[in-house]
Amino acid sequence: MWKIDTLGNGADGVHIGDINRDGLVDVVSGWEQSGDLMLYFNPGPELVRDEIAWSQVDISGGLPIKGIEDAAFADFDLDGFDDAIISSIEGDTRSLGIHWFEGDDMLDPDDWRGVYMMPEELAGYMKARVAQIDGVAGADIVAGSRSMDGVPAGVYWQWRRVWGIYDESAHNNFQRNDMESELPDTVSW
Ligand SMILES: [Ca+2]
Ligand SMILES: [Ca+2]
Ligand SMILES: [Ca+2]
């Protein structure tokens, strides 16, 4: 084992993917207690065990991240390449977040954008993944939440063509449905 970052507190929901498409597996991690969402770029096989060789960037996009449980690479436009990160946040935040690069420099935190998908849905989200679930339109999101403060645990399937609607007016319209009652018979895992 070797370390790639020792500054945050409570690394949780760590995942790998090649977000900059250089053929090297990068790492994304939420830090639950210190409230960070960090991306780490793989420096290549010769330096991979060297902590300071892993360049890193805060990709929260300015959103509060405290209580983050999971951060996963996601392919929203379904072209086979990861293009964003989806975060699952419990604690006082309780939302799903999408974080994506928009600019010239992946190492510049100001070139990362973030939006909460559930600004008014106070569920304690624990995991979320992006995939084509129903075979219709764009990518779908499946999310699970835990029981918190009287809100029971749930599994949610959220669908809509999300790529390209990252703006304040649109994300409030994102649909959310109870998977058990809404899943078509043809969808299975
Ligand atoms: Ca990479
Ligand atoms: Ca993609
Ligand atoms: Ca779909």
Task: Set out the fold topology.
Elements: E1 11-17, E2 26-31, E3 36-41, E4 55-58, E5 68-74, E6 84-89, E7 95-101, E8 112-116, E9 124-131, E10 140-146, E11 154-159, H1 168-171, E12 177-178, H2 179-182
Antiparallel strand pairs: 1-2, 2-3, 3-4, 5-6, 6-7, 7-8, 9-10, 10-11, 11-12
One calcium ion (CA) binds near residues 22, 24, 41 and 42.
Mean pLDDT: 82
Largest sheet data:
4 strands, antiparallel
Strand order of the largest sheet: 1-2-3-4
What is the number of strand segments?
Answer: 12
* Count of helical regions: 2
Helix content: under 10%
Q: Distance between the terminal alpha carbons, to the nearest Å?
A: 34 Å
Folded structure, characterized:
The protein is mainly beta and 189 residues long. Helices cover 4% and strands 38% of the residues. The strands form three sheets. Strands 1-2-3-4 form a four-stranded antiparallel β-sheet, with no helix packed on it. It is globular and about 50 Å long. It starts with 10 loop residues before the first strand and ends in a 7-residue tail after the last helix.
Index terms:
single chain; 189 residues; mainly beta; 2 helices; disordered C terminus; binds calcium ion
At a glance:
The protein has two helices and twelve strands; from the N terminus they run E-E-E-E-E-E-E-E-E-E-E-H-E-H. With 189 residues, it is mainly β. The strands form three sheets. It has a four-stranded antiparallel β-sheet, with no helix packed on it.
